[in-house]
Amino acid sequence: MDFDLNLMRVFLTVLHERSVTRAAQRLNLTQPAVSYALARLREKFDDPLFARTASGMQPTPVAFALAEPIERGMNSFAEAVNLRQRFEPTSSARRFRLSMSDIGEMVFLPALMERVHALAPRLQVEVLEIPLERLPQALKEGEVDLAIGNLAGLGSETCHAELFKERYTCMGRRGHPVLSAGLTRSQYKRLDHILVASRASAHRLLDDVLSEAGLPRRPYLTLPHFSAAAEIVRRTDLTMTLPLRAAIWFNRDDAFQIRPLPIALPMLSVTVHWHARFESDPGTAWLRRLVVDTLADPDPA
């Protein structure tokens, strides 16, 4: 039986998405093209492979049995191709895609791009914000090359390297009526908090950790990103809890008061992730080494 890479890619994408429409969008194909590929796959394997149900395209037992060997075959092919590729930073015009939250863009990206542009002036770099739950599949499919940030929970599904450990702090405006004198547990509970529920990092899990530690907070304002939060904190008595490096970045003009949390929490880990399929890809390997060299640094405090 011929091994058609495009058909196998369609098979794996429909298997993951459980939808012909979503698979077509992911693959940048038309829906009829995906349906035609499925028809060819069904003929090749003499099995329906997927059945339409109210909850989506349900794989047949044969499809489930095929998934692992096809995945292994795709990974082996990618590794073989990567071994033959060369990557020359000074001349390459390759496009790299990174996933990080807005706080990563503010704190990590300037230093990283300073080095990348100096070493590889013809590259194209695109930054995306992929939801945490979608990152393993996005890395596997090459939708993004690397993911950087507080990405707790991804370690078992991806290759990764730790950049540094980080701790959370509480930040309010300079002259804040509570933070100016310190911060106790009871004071922290009574603060009006800005909660940042970013989908691209594990920061949104902080409330669960605080509640389990007996320090629940009442969100006065909930935002999807950090970018607007600092200006709101500067103008009001609202506070926000955020990683220390981000607090230091926001406080470059000394407009804020930064206090340690009144409870010891586990340190968060900032990591860079990639998929095993691209472990030997020369370009990805070059970029992740540069990420580690640039961002892996000691505690800023």
From TrEMBL:
One example GO MF annotation: DNA binding
Residue ranges occupied by any HTH lysR-type domain in the UniProt entry: 3-60
Superkingdom in the source lineage: Bacteria
Keyword Transcription annotated: yes
InterPro entries registered for this protein in UniProt: LysR-type_TF, LysR_HTH_N, LysR_subst-bd, WH-like_DNA-bd_sf, WH_DNA-bd_sf
Alphabetically ordered keywords of this record: DNA-binding, Transcription, Transcription regulation
Keyword ATP-binding: no
Family statement: Belongs to the LysR transcriptional regulatory family.
Listed name of the protein: PCP degradation transcriptional activation protein
This protein's encoding gene: pcpR_2
